[in-house]
DNA sequence: TAAAAATGCTAACAATTGTTAGCGGGTTAT
DNA sequence: ATAACCCGCTAACAATTGTTAGCATTTTTA
C-alpha cells in the first residue's frame, strides 16, 4: 500500500513472457545467446540482457544464479548435443568412412542453421568459462576432435581417404562449417539445403573440376 | 628530492624495452595482440596489458591514445596486408583460377603462421571496433570476399572449377584457414609446410581418394 | 479465500573499467 | 651546464560491472 501513497499511477511489473514448453530461464538463455553472439560474452552486461528480456537486471537472478551459469548452460548443452551425435554415427554399422564424415558434416551444418546463436556462442565464447567448467570443456572438445580424426585415419587405412594429416583435416572441416556465420549475415542467401550440399561437396571432393 | 625524503630506496622506473627497429608503441601493440587473442578485446583491461608490458596503466597513454586505437592498428594493418596481396595476385597474368586460389590460400596460411596473434585478433575481434572504423572494416571485408568470389566464378566459367556457389566456397576457404588456431595449440604439431600443403590439397581436391 | 511460492522492483555495494592531471626523474640537444 | 623533451609514476575521476538485500506484487496452491 505504500507504493499507492507515493505514486498515484498503479505500478505494473513487467513479466517475462514464456513460450509454451519453456521456462523463463529458457527465455533468458535464448536472449543471452543472441547477445553473446552479437557482442561477445564479456561485452554483454546483465543490464543489457535484462533490457532485452524486458525486466530489471536484478530480476534475472530469480531465474539464474550468475552470468557465468548462462554461458555454462549454452556451452554444455551444445557440446553434449554434438557428443551424442558422433557416438551414434560411430556406432552405426556398414558405413564407409566417407559416409561417416558426410554424416558428421551434415549434422554440424544443420545445427548451425537451426540453433545458430547457441552453436556459434559455444564455439567462440567457451574460453570465458571458469575453471572447473573450462577444463571440462577443453577436454570434451579435444575428445570430440579426436573421434573425428579416428574416423579419418580409419578411412585412410582402408584407402577411401587420401593420406593426409588427420588432425589437419579435422580442423579444416570444423572451421569451415563455422563459416556459416557469414552466410547468416549475407544478403543473397542461397537455400540451406544447397549450402549444405555445396559444403559437403567441396570438402569431400574439392574445388577442382575433374578432367 | 621529495621522493628521497619519503623513501630511502631510490625509485627506479620501469622502462619499456624496445627492440631495435621498433617503437615502444610497437611493443605495446604486440603485447596487446597476444592478450586480445588469449582473452578477447573486452576481457583484456589496460591494467592487464600494462602489467605484461612492465609498466603502470597510465604510462601506456604516453604511447597510445586509447584502447580502441590499439585494436584499430591491429585490424587495419592486417586488412591492408591482405588487400594488397590479393591485388597483386589479381594483376598477375597467365595464371589459372586454381593457381590464383592456391596463391591466396597459401598467403593466408603463411600469414596465420607468421603473424598469428595479429591475424587472429583482427579476424575475431574486429566487431569491437567503433563506428567510423567499424563500417570501414565491414566494407573492406566484404570487398575482399567479393574479389575471391570473382576469381572462383571466373574459374567456373572457364571450366576449371566445379559449378558451386562461389560465396559458399569463399567462406569455407577463409574459415578453414582460421582453424590454424587449433594447430597452434596442438601438442604434436606437424611442420608448417606440411600443414600448408595439406590444407591446399584438401580444399582444392577434397578428402576423397580418387579411384 | 488465505497461505505460500514465484517473480518483480528499487537501492545499494564493492570492484573494476578506461582515462586524465600533475609531478618528477632521465635523456638528449644546444 | 641548461633547456627541452620523453616517459614513467601516483592519485584520482566518473562510469559501469556483477550481484545482493529487502520489500512489493502477482500467481499458484491448499
List the helices and strands and how they pair.
Two copies of one chain form a homodimer.
Chain A: H1 2-6, H2 24-39, H3 46-53, H4 67-91, H5 97-114, H6 116-124, H7 131-157, H8 166-178, H9 180-185, H10 192-205
The structure holds a DNA duplex (30 and 30 nucleotides).
Key words describing this protein structure:
homodimer; 211 residues; mainly alpha; disordered N terminus; DNA-binding
Number of strands of chain A: 0
- Number of separate helices of chain A: 10
Shape assignment of chain A: elongated
What fraction, in percent, of the residue positions of chain A are helical? Answer: 55-70%
Overall average pLDDT of chain A: 88
Biggest interface reads: A-B, 49 and 49 residues
Oligomer: homodimer
Strand content of chain A: under 5%
Distance between the termini of chain A: 84 Å
Main sheet makeup of chain A: none
Instruction: Give the low-pLDDT segments of chain A.
Output: 1-10
Helix/strand class of chain A: mainly alpha
Q: How do the SSEs of chain A run, as a string of H and E?
A: HHHHHHHHHH
Radius of gyration based on Cα positions of chain A: 22 Å
Amino acid at each position: 500500500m505504500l507504493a499507492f501513497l507515493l505514486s498515484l499511477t498503479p505500478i505494473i511489473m513487467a513479466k517475462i513472457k514464456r513460450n509454451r514448453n519453456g521456462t523463463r530461464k529458457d527465455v533468458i538463455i535464448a536472449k543471452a545467446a543472441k547477445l553473446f553472439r552479437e557482442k561477445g560474452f564479456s561485452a554483454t552486461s546483465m543490464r543489457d540482457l535484462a533490457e532485452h528480456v524486458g525486466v530489471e537486471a536484478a530480476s534475472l537472478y530469480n531465474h539464474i544464479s550468475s552470468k557465468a551459469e548462462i554461458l555454462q548452460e549454452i556451452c554444455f548443452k551444445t557440446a553434449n548435443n554434438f557428443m551424442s551425435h558422433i557416438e551414434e554415427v560411430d556406432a552405426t554399422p556398414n558405413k564407409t568412412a566417407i559416409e561417416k564424415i558426410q554424416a558428421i558434416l551434415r549434422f554440424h551444418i544443420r545445427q548451425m542453421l537451426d540453433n545458430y546463436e547457441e552453436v556459434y556462442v559455444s564455439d567462440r565464447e567457451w574460453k570465458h568459462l571458469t575453471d572447473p567448467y573450462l577444463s571440462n570443456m577443453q577436454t570434451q572438445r579435444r575428445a570430440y576432435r579426436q573421434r573425428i580424426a579416428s574416423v579419418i585415419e580409419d578411412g585412410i587405412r582402408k584407402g577411401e581417404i587420401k593420406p593426409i594429416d588427420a588432425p589437419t583435416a579435422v580442423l579444416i572441416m570444423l572451421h569451415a562449417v563455422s563459416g556459416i556465420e557469414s552466410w547468416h549475415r549475407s544478403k543473397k542467401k542461397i537455400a540451406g539445403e544447397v549450402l549444405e550440399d555445396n559444403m559437403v561437396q567441396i570438402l569431400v571432393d574439392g574445388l577442382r573440376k575433374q578432367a
